[in-house]
Amino acid sequence: MPVVVFSTDRQLPKEFDQKFVEFLGKTLNKPPENIFVKINDNQRLTLGGTQSPQGTAILEIKAVGIFNPVSNAEFSQKISEHLSEEIQIPPQRILIEFIDLNPSFVGKAGTTIEKLLSRQ
Asked: H-helix or E-strand containing 77?
C-alpha cells in the first residue's frame, strides 16, 4: 500500500494521474488499486534557491517492506527516467525520498496494515 506525494512546478494533464499510478504499480510491484497518490502540480519549487524552466519534482514514497539500498537505486532510476520522458524534467532536478513504514503505524480499512497482513 504505497503512499506517494508528488510535487512539481509543471502543470500536469488529468490523464497523467492514471498513467502514473499504473507505472508506479509496475515499478514497485504493487497492484495499482492499492497505491495512494497525491499530486501537487503547478507548485513553486526551487533547487539551490533557483527556479528553472527545466522544471523540478519532489517525490515522497512511503511503503511497508519494499525499500532497501538495491531496490531504491532501481526505483530511483526508473522513476527519474519515466518523469523525464513524460514531463521533460531532467533527472538531476528530481528528488525521491523513500520512507519505510512500520505496518503497525499505518491505518487502512478501520485497522492497521499489520493486522490486514496477518489475515492473509
From this structure: helix 69-87
User: What is the pLDDT at residue 51?
Assistant: 85
Tell me which fold the domain 3-118 belongs to. Answer: Macrophage Migration Inhibitory Factor (3.30.429)
pLDDT (mean) for 105-118: 91
Sign of the dihedral through C-alpha 43, 44, 48, 53: positive
HSE of 15, CA atoms in CB hemisphere, 13 A: 2
Hey, what amino acid is at 42?
N
- Show the CA angle centred on residue 57, arms to residues 53 and 60, nearest 5°: 170
For residue 8, list its beta bridge partners: 57
DSSP state of 53: T
Mean pLDDT of 10-30: 96
- Alpha carbon 36 to chain centroid, angstroms: 9
